[in-house]
Predict the structure.
Amino acid sequence: MEWHILSFDNWCFHAAAHIRFKPDRPAVEQELREHMEDHFNALLAEGKTAQEAERLTLAAMGDADETGAALARVHKPYLGWLYVAAKWVVALSAILLFMVSCSSGFDFPAFGFSEPFPMLDLESSSSETFLLFPQCKAQRDGYTFSVPLAIHRIRKDDDRAPYEAVFFVLEAVHPLPWAGFPEGVRCSLSAVDSVGNLYPNRSLKYSLADEAYREVGGNPRGRTLLRYRYELWISNLDPAAEWVELRYERLGCSFTLCIDLTEGGKRA
Amino acid sequence: MKRLRIKVKPLARPARIALCALAAALLFLAAYAVSGYPAFSPEGALRRAERRALISMRGEILAEVPQMLYNDNQTRFLLVEYGDAAAGFYGVAQDAPLKLGWGAHSSDVFYLFPKSAGGATVAAYPGYPPFRSFEDELLWIAAFDDFPQAVRAELSFTLVPSDSLGFPDAAPVSYALSSEREYAGIFLFSLAAPEENLENSSTSYVLQRLAECVDPWSAQVRASTFAGGVLPTATVVFYDAAGNAIATVETQFAEALV
């Protein structure tokens, strides 16, 4: 080993020893050493001898303790410890994610929306089907409700009386991903048409003893991070109805959404 | 020949700390999402259930009762009051992975029913998971009351099964229960499961249907369970510390608010 390297290492070690955050010391030592070697090589290139270049390099760097004190002022330990702590937090979060995933058997809830109303045969010759895209919106308790799609179905069998129904997608959006399905709508949403007929919620129907078999029913059909969808229907729609209004009312809270059945929905 | 030295400047330490914080936050959120977004307390889970129920009211928790344990999960039974308008039952379990929270994947139950005007509202609790409590252990019946001076209450009712149930042994059964005041605003009564065969007993069947009265999806069932399709009536007698009866309230068992 060349002598100058030993003396440079010694100088760098003494200077870096002033830095309170120990993990920083090797990097600082390395940087100082490179700087000294550059200077040493430059002096050699000028024609100085190795001993002279070493002496001049060490003289140019000054006192190791003074330089070290200056370095200690720049290298605050709290940032270093904070960085170490941050790395630990990342590691622990990764372990937590792994353990939670193992604990749930990697059985993650399904996300995403499937094609709405897959059981409806839109090409059926015995039915007329109209796709509607109502622009209605309502807000309640942080949820924004809308009806992105409605399907107005008129069944015209020769041997049976015409039967009309509206199938619709009710979408709720909430800014918090943990809000969950707004279950209140499922058991409290009813409808009224332009003729004045009431379509009670399925959960209400029996207590109202509704003989006409008109009802609003349906089920939740998927979610994404912030969106929740129900596939609902209004059964036994009055053929004279020009619109139906969805009504939610419970404990003083209410909102309405209107589906216009004459809005010129294109024939499917 | 001079050697070309290329050094990639490392990120400054504050930037690396910020990156670590971001990574940790993303991992933590992922763990929270995988857990089913559990709430950190039963009350927190109740507030979420209220939001999902779209009722815009924050109920006052009158009692929080640790319930039976099932599959190692801790469960809580909360009795909630919404002013003079309504009352509610809320059942929630500490069911998040690693037991890190309550009501993961919205796996809780929330029942709302209107308060009666007579000074006492009586309701049977369907349990958590729904309709399991009585089969396993106890049927809870709550009497929300407006008599703060009452320290003891006696509850009595008779269940008359409908003939249409098809039980050959169907006969009216009367119950008399007593409870000391443990929580302000409410008396809690518990009824142990009968020892007879649960499957073939009209007594047990009718009690279970009674507990479904506060469930909005059970309207059809309860109408065909009780004689005449009428919900049973309970009589509650309230006693003060001296043992004097201060009020007697006769009221129907509460029905779901939809």
